[in-house]
Amino acid sequence: MDAKPIDQLTEDEAKAEIARLSDVLTQANAAYHRDDAPELTDADYDAFKRRNAAIEDRFPDLKCADSPTDQIGAAPAEGFGKVTHEQRMLSLGNAFDEADVTEFDQSIRKYLGWPEDQSLSYTAEPKIDGLSLALRYEYGVLVQAATRGDGSVGENVTANARTVADIPETLTDAPDLLEVRGEVYMSHADFASLNERQSRAGAKTFANPRNAAAGSLRQLDASVTRARPLRFFAYAWGVTSAPLADTQFAAIERLSELGFSTNPLTQICDTPDAILAHYHRIEADRAELGYDIDGVVYKVNDLTLQGRLGYRSTTPRWAIAHKFPAELAWTRLERIEIQVGRTGALSPVARLVPVTVGGVVVSNATLHNEDYIAGRDAKGGMIRDGRDIRAGDLVQVYRAGDVIPKIADVDLSQRPTDAVTYDFPTLCPECGSEARREEGDAVRRCSGGLICPAQAVEKLKHFVSRAAFDIEGLGVKQVEQFHSDGWIKEPADIFTLRERYSDGLQQLKNRDGWGEKSAANLFNAIDDRRQIPLNRMIFALGLRHVGESASALLARHYGDWEHLSDAVAAAAPLEGTAWDDLLGIDGVGAVMAGSLVTSLTQEAERASIDRLIAHLDIQPIAALAQSDSPVAGKVVVFTGTLEKMTRAEAKARAEALGAKVSGSVSAKTDILVAGPGAGSKAKKAAELGVETLDEDGWLTLINALPTGE
Ligand code: IVH
Questions:
Q1: Distance CA 638, CA 395 (A)
Q2: Tens digits of residue pLDDT in 244-255
Q3: Does residue 68 surpass a pLDDT of 80?
Q4: Structure confidence at residue 74 as a pLDDT band (50, 70, 90)
């Protein structure tokens, strides 16, 4: 290194030099630890590191929180270890206005069969804009901290969590096993000073406190996390060996007594009106809190009721997040571009003059579809009083939470005189195939199917995404590269990469960003995924309307690929028993079922799926979480009046225990639960010799006879 002697550097030069060295060392670390492909000799690496430390010594103010000097030890090559959550970490449903809140209260009452005049209390507390963390304490000692990840599997960030001052290392008088859940966040003041330190040192700054908190917690080196001022609010719990309390509010008080920070704005509200009043109080205080919140969370206070209400596939029935209105800003729309998605949808995207909306720089926003641009809704009615959107317009952009920014409005008084109406393409801009719009569909779609390169590549990206095959080393960039080289055209090709390129290692190694070790790792990572759980497999196919939770529902209902496949084939006429069975799955509607059936029976698509399956060992899914329950796998029919719970609750509980609830009695029915007024179904069950129980008999069987009755 023939660089300028340190004692001759001006402060500006030192700053530039620290930034350069930080880049060199970061890249060297990645090459060494992540890719196992060192780019520097040990001696050069040490010399760079020493020079960096010496400059920091002379100019201590320039030292950034992420300084390579403080990074000790080797980062684990594969990043964080994985942690499977014993109880899934779910998200919350959203309410956007007061009507949604009333509807939330009504739907809970309906589910529980709870009349209007019976009081129902909720807690209301700020929704912290950070990232959720699960802390596991065994015999009062913190043994593990995990991020939420995909809800089932998160990352092990124990060492990092131990550096957060709000997170106690030990607890006194806690249950032997206690998992505390809450939000890691960064205060406005700490965020501002972190960014200032970073920028003084020429290091990367963060767009908002949430990103700063996430980036700081997910550091492979805990000493970096230690230098970042993170905080933690406890607001929930996972597994516990003993209940914390009888109510949500008391449980939070207990967490506070155990030494956790809990949010002081948490309050009990006895009516929807009281809830809304508290929402407005929190909203009014928002700017003064000193940390970001993006709404107010309401939870049913009584924990027994929470237990009865249970969960939908990804959200609890007993809680909801009431979001604050979106943040807005005005900017120029430079041009409209079309992106083709994995299902062929042509999505218009607004390219904007960058503008800050609620602390985040936005340069793209979705325009939804052609009607939206034209100022019409799907039914031909007017939106924005019929104002259309054109390139050159001054438009209003908004963001709500993490979702893609949208365009809300256009200011016609600012429209350039030469602006022209946007003509939505009728040919796919990627493959030239006709782009058709079907009756009743707001979206125009490319008809090119598998020949459309955009659809193919989007399908592949989805296939390797985190909730799907999640192949380490095969991300968006690599998929694009392999696709454009013609190495991978469809998912099945991923699994023949190694054999088609027997010298593939050699070929990969010679490309940008690949070393011998990373290429070998990729082939191994692909092999690791030849075994795949059924739900991930379904989701990975990227079928329209079949998202992650629908895939889980289908997987749990059908158990294995063969059953699913046969059932879908049998449902192809879109009527009959197999079709009814599909629609009978709680959470599956006609649109999703139709899409599933059409996609899996469409010839080219099916052939592509079959080519894929030949390389896979698809893991069956146990009927439901509690497959050891007495009713797991049984087909149950409810008829007549239920007196202890509503039909919806009875059905959800039975399903949670692994039973399949059907609407009609047949030879396949295992149990008929008949309340007063049961008619023809009871008669048919008797004829067929189906076991018939009354409501108490059923509750005894599932061990759920309400106490005191
Ligand atoms: S309760 C079963 N309470 O919001 C649901 N979540 O949108 C348990 N969050 O993943 C979550 N503040 O990361 C709850 N006071 C609060 C919260 C809160 C922020 C986050 C949490 C969750 C996300 C859902």
A1: 54
A2: 999 999 999 999
A3: no
A4: very low
Residue 92 in contact with ligand 1 by CB distance below 6 A: yes
Say whether pLDDT at 353 is over 60. yes
How would residue 549 be classed by pLDDT, with cut points 50, 70 and 90? confident
**Nearest ligand 1 atom, CA 316:** 2
Same domain as 199, residue 135: yes
Residue 632 is predicted with a pLDDT of 85
Q: Rounded to an integer, what distance in angstroms lies between the CA atom of residue 485 and that of residue 501?
A: 13
Mutate which of 125, 128, 323 for ligand 1? The one with the most ligand atoms within 8 Å of its CB, which is 128
Q: Which of 259, 280, 313 is the last residue of a domain?
A: 313
Does 608 lie in the same domain as 461? no
Same domain, 300 and 339: no
Check residue 644 and give its pLDDT. Answer: 85
Sign of the four-CA dihedral 219, 222, 223, 226: positive
| Whether pLDDT at 422 is above 70 | yes
Same domain, 135 and 266: yes
Domain-located, residue 541: yes
Q: Is the CB of 128 under 6 A from ligand 1?
A: yes
- Is residue 371 in contact with ligand 1, taking CB distance under 6 Å? no
Instruction: Count the domains in the chain.
Output: 6
Residue 320 Cβ < 6 Å to ligand 1:
no
Residue 655 pLDDT > 50, yes or no? yes
Distance CA 630, CA 677 (A): 26
Tell me what the mean pLDDT of segment 393-413 comes to: 88
Let me know whether 289 and 344 are in one domain: no
Cβ 132 under 6 angstroms from ligand 1 = yes
Q: Scanning the structure block, which residue is given the tokens 């058709």? A: 436
Residue 257: pLDDT over 90: yes
In a domain, 443, yes or no: no
Mean pLDDT of 195-222: 89
Confidence band for 1, pLDDT divided at 50, 70 and 90: very low
Domain that holds residue 134: 122-313
With respect to residue 82, please indicate whether it lies within any of the assigned structural domains.
no
Whether residues 134 and 247 fall in one domain:
yes
- CA of 620 from ligand 1 middle (Å) equals 31
* Percent of the residues in the chain that have a pLDDT greater than 90, as a whole number: 61
Strand runs labelled E in 156-307: 177-185, 231-240, 267-269, 293-300
Q: What is the 3-state secondary structure (H, E, C) of 275-317?
A: HHHHHHHHHHHHHHCCCCEEEEEEEECEHHHHHHHCECCCCEC
pLDDT in tens, 290-323: 999 999 999 999 999 999 999 988 899 999 999 9
Domain boundary among 45, 70, 95: 70
- Supply the residues annotated as catalytic: 127
Q: Which among 431, 483, 430 is positioned nearest to 457, based on CA atoms? A: 483
Alpha-carbon distance 291 to 276, whole Å? 21
322 assigned to some structural domain: no
Q: Can you tell me the distance from the alpha carbon of 81 to that of 664, in angstroms, rounded to the nearest whole number?
A: 47
Element (H, E) at 684: helix 680-688
CATH code, 561: 1.10.150.20
User: Which pLDDT belongs to residue 35?
Assistant: 41
Residue 34: the pLDDT is 40
CATH number of the domain residue 646 falls in? 3.40.50.10190
Sign for the CA dihedral angle at 606, 607, 610, 612 comes to negative
| Ligand 1 probe mutation, 297, 306, 309, 323, most atoms within 8 A of CB | 297
Q: How many CA atoms lie within 13 A of 579 on its CB side?
A: 12
